[in-house]
Amino acid sequence: MIELRNIGFLKNAMEAISVFIPEGNFRFAEEGIYFKAIDPSQVLLVDYFIDKKLFDVYDVEPNFVGVDIVEFNKILQRAMPKDRLSIELTESEIKIKLESDLKRSFKLPLIDVNEEEAKTPKVEYDTKIIIGSTSLKEMLKDAILFGSSIVLKVKNNKFYVEAKGPSGTMETEATKVSKIESEKEVNAKFSLNFFQNIVRMVDPAEKITIGLKTDSPMKIIYKIGESKIELYLAHMIL
């Protein structure tokens, strides 16, 4: 049995993940819950972990189960602010209860998902950037005016976002960055739509950590409540 009284972070996490991943495996381990999966287009890898100490009750046998993430997210989005969430696993289904003014029960059948866990890319990143989520989101809003892809650049310890399209070009420099650690210049291209959806659910007060290397996947890390999500976005050819 797993119980959680403050389910806001889990709602936000599943909403963010379900945009990309329709189904995947949850690994229930002694130290907490792991979720790692690649989206169907093979563009994005999601690596999410919830430490067991974030739960009010965490008493579950180690297990590896496939779940329909879209349907699971729909259930969580029905949670009211004062609801207590409980989750129980059987051999064939996951049982979900939401209790406060109403007592609601849901069941989802477990599904067969490829049992091999996705492997995170082994990249030695040249640059690490820590930036406020609000600043990054505004940079991406600028970029969407002109293109469907963006180029991220780091030069002379400065961080830039560029976009080009038939109607024009745009370059935005982040003049207020929490931290930049750069060993060399970086020039990398990515899908703007994917990047925007990745950061869409980040709290305005949170910071986003980005790992960059030319012609390599981008690494993005941020917190959802007290839990941590790590994502790897495949690069595009410049």
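the 2nd protein, sequnce then structure:
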Amino acid sequence: MIEVLLQAERLLVHGMLDQAEAMYRRVAQQDPQNAIAIVGLARVALERGDERLAYERACAALEIDRENVAALRLEARLSEVFATRGAPVERPAWLDTGKPPPPPPPPPASPPPAESGAPATETARPSERHVLTHNPSMSEHRQREEQAAPPAHPATDAEPLPKARPGLLRRLLGR
């Protein structure tokens, strides 16, 4: 099984998505609890440009193995990308708390209407509020960096040094 996963990884790295996907699927069918194969399928989906499917598969891999670093990074990065685009995903609460995932809630009858004048953090669901407040947009990030800029270095902001006399350097060097 490990050899198949390694071969699928090599195929994925070389851009052979169909072959890599077939190998990851074979491993996932033989062992549905293999989080590495599920992450591989998520990476294939991401390479194909299907970020939502990649996110769903990364979360599925995390439900199998909470310590899978590749799945953790993929989930975190994709949730950040979606939040930056203004379309945050509802992150599973257990990702932030470390508690086991709750049973899936029943589907809502109808989505609540969004108020047009309210800020996004007020109309967002609690998990979306977390993403919006903890994943700032690039402009907010730049503003924070500018505000937290280190104080100017005294050597670079000091007054310029006086001009040296031309013969002084020759005398000091003995020429």
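The chain has eleven helices and no strands. The radius of gyration is 26 Å.
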